[in-house]
Amino acid sequence: MTDDTRALEDWAAAAYADDYSRRGALSVFAKGGLFAGLAGLMASLPKLSYAQEDEVVRLGYLPITDATALLVAHAKGFFADEGLEAEAPTLMRGWSPLIEGFVANRFNVVHFLNPIPIWMRYNNQFPVKVLAWAHTNGSGLVVGAHTDITDFSQLGGKRVAVPFWYSMHNIVLQYALRQSGVTPVIKPEGAALAPNECNLQVMAPPEMPPALAARNLDAYIVAEPFNALGELRAGARMLRFTGDIWKNHPCCVVSMHEAAVNERPEWTQKVVNAVVKGAVYASMHKEEVATLISADGAGYLPAPAPVVLRAMTHYDDPAYLDSGAVRHAADWGNGRIDFQPWPYPTADALTVEQLRETVVGGDAAFLADLDPAFVSEDLVDRSFVRTALEANPDWLNDPSVNPGDPFNRTEVLSL
After folding, report:
1. Nearest in space to 244 (alpha carbons), one of 160, 162, 332
2. Could you tell me which of 352, 405, 355, 345 has the C-alpha nearest to residue 377?
3. Per-residue pLDDT for 199 more than 90?
4. From residue 375, how far is each of 281, 311, 336, 350 by CA, in Å?
5. Does residue 48 carry a pLDDT above 80?
6. In this predicted model, what pLDDT tens digit does every residue of 149-179 receive, in sequence order?
7. DSSP 293-304
8. Is residue 384 over pLDDT 70?
9. Nearest residue to 222 (alpha-carbon basis) of 211, 180, 343
10. Is 66 exposed, middle or buried (0-12, 13-18, 19+ CB in 10 A)?
11. C-beta atoms surrounding 401 within 10 Å
12. Given Cys at both, which of 32, 35, 63, 82 links 270, Cβ 3.0 to 4.6 Å?
C-alpha cells in the first residue's frame, strides 16, 4: 500500500466513519434480507410515527451531491420561507441506515436512488411516494491508473464496484456492458471469470477511491463527489459519464411517506415548493452551491470545496472529449450534474424496463409483473411538483427542458 493510498483510506475513515463500515448490514440489505428483518419494525410504525405527528421537516440524506436540492432548501431558508420548521438535515452514511430511518419515521423527507422506491413499494409493500427528482446526471464510471481500459468492452475479466444493486449506476453500467458484448455477473471475490464476464460488487462510496488506488478494484461507478475525489486523489481516469449514456437521466428522487402526502397536502406542497426552489437555485448557482455544501462551507458534505466544485462543474474539458468520456456534449447540453426536478413519466417507465435486464443480488422476481406505465402513475405524485414548477418559471431555463413542451420528453439511451 502506498502512502497516498493509506492517506486516502485515513481520510475516508475519518470523514465517513461508522455506518459506512457496516458492510454486513449493507450486504444483507443489498441482497433483499433487510426488509424481512424489518417486518416487525414496519408493523410497529404507529409507535414510531413522530415524524408524521407534526409538521417539522426532518431530512435524511447521504453525503453526496445527489442531496443538493434538499440541502440548499435548508441552507438558504426556503423551508422557512414556506412557513415550515425544518431540523438540520441528518447525514446518514449508507443507503441501509437511511432507509431504516425512513421506515421508522425518523425522517419524513429523503432522497433515494431512483430504483429504491420501486423496490420498496412493489417488492416490500412499503408505502413510499416519489414527489420530484432530486437531480439528473451526476455520476460516472472511473477506472484505475493501473489499468489500460479505454472502453466498456475491455471490462471483461475485471472487477467493478457499484453503490447499490437497485441504483441507476447499476442500470446504466449493465446497459453499457451488454452493448459492448460483456456479461455482468455477481460472483464471490476471487472466483474465476470468463474473458467476457465483468464481476460486480456492492461497495460503499467512500471505500471506492481507496480500493481503486490499492488495485483491489479495476473500476467503480458512483455518484459525485466520489468520481471527482477519485480523479484528484486516487489517480482515477473518467471512462464515461452516465448522463452521456442516458441523456439527463434521473438518479436520486425526493421521497416521502404516502400517508403524509395524503393526509397533509398543504404541508406537502410547501415542502415540495422549498425543494424545487433549492433545485432551481442550485441549477443557476453551481459554483456557489458547491462551496456552500462542502466541508469548507456549511459542512453538509465532508468533501472539501475543490472536490465538490469539480463534481459540480468540471465537464466541458477537452480531455474528456478526447478520451470519449463525453461524446454528446455538442447536442445533449448536459452538465456534470443538473437539477431539473420534473419526474418525466417516460424515464420512470424506462427505469422499470431496464431493471428487468439488470442483474441484482437477491430475488428480483417482482419486476416481471410490473407494468412500467402503472408504476409511473402509482409511485409518483406529480401534482405538487407541477404546482411548484409553474410558480418557478426559471426552471424552463434549464437546457434539458423544452420550453414549448416542458412536461414531456423522449428518452435517449445510447452508448
Report:
1. 332
2. 345
3. yes
4. 30, 32, 28, 11
5. no
6. 999 999 999 999 999 999 999 999 999 999 9
7. HSTTTT-SSSS-
8. yes
9. 211
10. buried
11. 17
12. 82
Longest dimension (CA), the chain: 59
Pairing of strands 109-113, 252-257: antiparallel
Using alpha carbons only, what angle is made at residue 237 by residues 338 and 361, rounded to the nearest 5 degrees?
75
The per-residue pLDDT for 12 is 61
18's grid cell: 461508522
Q: For the residues of 345-398, what is the DSSP string, one character each?
A: HHHHHHHHHHHHTS--SS--GGGGG--HHHHHHHHB--HHHHHHHHT-GGGGGS
77, 389, 334, 374 alpha-carbon torsion, rounded to 10°: 120
Q: Of 249, 250, 262, nearest to 381 (Cα)?
A: 262
Confidence at residue 86, expressed as pLDDT on a 0 to 100 scale: 97
Which domains, from first to last, does the chain contain? 1-135+248-415 (3.40.190.10), 139-244 (3.40.190.10)
Task: Tell me the pLDDT band of 41, cut-offs 50, 70 and 90.
Answer: very low
Predicted confidence (pLDDT) per residue in 329-374, tens digit = 878 989 999 999 999 999 999 999 999 999 999 999 999 999 999 9
Per-residue burial over 329-340, b = 16 or more CB atoms within 10 Å of its CB, e = otherwise: beebebbbbbbb
Task: Output the nine-digit C-alpha cell for 61.
Answer: 440524506
Task: Report the pLDDT value the prediction gives residue 189, as an integer from 0 to 100.
Answer: 87
Q: Is 359 within 8 Å of 186 (Cβ atoms)?
A: yes
- What type of residue sits at position 188? P
Helix (H) or strand (E) holding 280: helix 265-284
Q: How far is CA 6 from CA 13, 76, 212, 233, in A?
A: 10, 37, 12, 11
CA 356 distance to own-chain centroid? 19
Q: Check pLDDT > 50 for residue 44.
A: no
Q: Taking the CA atoms of the chain, what radius of gyration do you get in angstroms?
A: 20
Give the confidence band of 1 by pLDDT, cuts at 50, 70, 90: low
Residues 82, 49 contacting (CB under 8 angstroms): no
Q: Residue 214 — φ and ψ, nearest 5°?
A: -85, 0
